[in-house]
Amino acid sequence: VGAWSQSAADCAATFKRNGREIRFREPRDELKSAFIIGNGEITTTAGRCKILKASRKSDKSTLKMSCNNAVGFYDRAVQLTMQDENTLTYGFPDNSTLDVVFTKCRL
Q1: End-to-end CA gap in the chain
Q2: pLDDT tens digits along 38-64
Q3: What is the DSSP code (8-state) at residue 78?
């Protein structure tokens, strides 16, 4: 849960906190790799995914999601691997070549 970015240096420029709520700063940079996990969904700079099913095995969580963006709707499965409490790897099940490391933003 929380805001995640590929670089801790990008956190303040990408996100803002309003009380307990974390949001993207406007205008959003849709090419930036950042997301917010919360309330059964993942919100990216370009769209939103509702988590339909989550399963966990050891340090890996697999999420099956229904997503939408400006182009349309699609289903997606992703795998999140916690490296430590401030670092996670976001990728696709059974394909680690596309894994990307994210840092939790402290806002």
Answers
A1: 13
A2: 989 999 999 999 999 999 998 899 999
A3: E
Alpha helices in the chain (DSSP H): 11-14
Amino acid of residue 63: L
Question: What is the tens place of the pLDDT at every residue in 9-20?
Answer: 999 999 999 999
Count of all residues that appear for the chain in the document: 107
- CB neighbours of 90 closer than 8 A, spacing ≥ 6? 4, 35, 78, 79, 80, 99, 100, 101, 102
- Cα pseudo-dihedral 70, 95, 83, 23, rounded to 10: 0
Q: Residue 14 is which amino acid?
A: T
Distance CA 69, CA 82 (A): 26
Distances (CA, A) of 73 to 64, 78, 101: 14, 16, 25
Contact yes or no for 53/38 (Cβ under 8 A) = no
CB 13 within 8 A of CB 105: no
